[in-house]
Amino acid sequence: MKKELIVAIENPEDKNVITAALESGVSAVLTTKEGISEKVKKLARVKTIAPDGDFKLGEEFVIVEIKGKEDEERAAQLLKQGKKVIVKTTDWTIIPLENLLAQGDEVYAWVRNSEEAKTALTILEKGVKGVVLETKDVNEIKATGQAISQAGEKVKLEVAKVKRVKPIGMCDRVCIDTCSNMTRGEGALVGNSSAGMFLVHAETESNPYVAARPFRVNAGAVHMYVRLPGGKTKYLAEIESGDEIMIYNYKGEGRIAYVGRAKVEKRPMLLIEAETKEGKKVSGILQNAETIRLTRPDGTPISVVELKEGDEVLVYTEEPGRHFGMKVKESIVEK
After folding, report:
1. What's CA 188's distance to the chain center, in Å?
2. What are phi and psi of 8, to 5 degrees?
3. Residue 332, domain member (yes or no)
4. Residues 46 and 129 in one domain
5. Nearest-CA neighbor of 161 among 278, 313, 285?
6. In this structure, are residues 221 and 239 in contact, taking their beta carbons and an 8 Å threshold?
7. Tens digits of residue pLDDT in 137-180
8. pLDDT > 70: percent of the chain
9. How many CA atoms lie within 13 A of 14 on its CB side?
10. Which residues form the 3-dehydroquinate synthase C-terminal domain (predicted)?
11. Do residue 107 and residue 42 come from a single domain?
12. Are residues 126 and 188 in the same domain?
């Protein structure tokens, strides 16, 4: 689930706060006063939550101040009615948030700093959908924005041993250039099947012939799946500018990256097959070039041209079954 940062303001003249919010990836600006929404919109293209905003405060979004059990029960009822509930507590505590998260996903936490935000984003592992930050401290806004950007999904990566590497000739392959730089140990999950995906390492490494391109994942053949936010997948052929994909590190910690460009070019390719110790099979078709790498269990990259039988690489597996990229339960065999 993509997390949201909402910044609460009361003074549209406080341009430093609004600018910091926009630069930190704010989803919306919230104000309880009428007449401020349009003033905020003159500064930038941003959604507003207000009595006269894009999202109506008191209708779509409702603030509930928790002082006792009755307030918590009211918040739970609002969640059942499909409202987005912003939980505000007098002595910031996580117990009401835990109780409400067990009853619905549209829970937001009113916080005063980045540390409170980090806690709210990890409650019951899944965390709140977003935080409403009330502060005039520009540094806290930026720190909270960074916490939001890093609050992604976590998956359990497994170790698989390479079983076969076979050149298969020319294919159409997709190279994904994201709008974010990646570091060693990070990449995208791609595979011939959504049930088995390799952690294909970003092009963070340089060599005497090619400079590093840390924003790039040379993802593989057009038919393969790539993992998106929310556990969804998409064919590489369908990826285009503005799309969101998930970037994971070797620990399985994920974050969202936006696609700047997806290039489809004909290149010589390799079929790579691997198997986990539980016998789950993973396969993918990647470009036959030194700069394309998989990821070892310790996070170091290994080039596909160096792969040999028995090498250990990181993979992600799940039960097969997808319909338009959504996980479904069905009997399916992919070969």
Report:
1. 11
2. -90, 130
3. no
4. yes
5. 313
6. no
7. 999 999 999 888 777 678 999 999 999 999 999 999 999 999 99
8. 93
9. 16
10. 160-335
11. yes
12. no
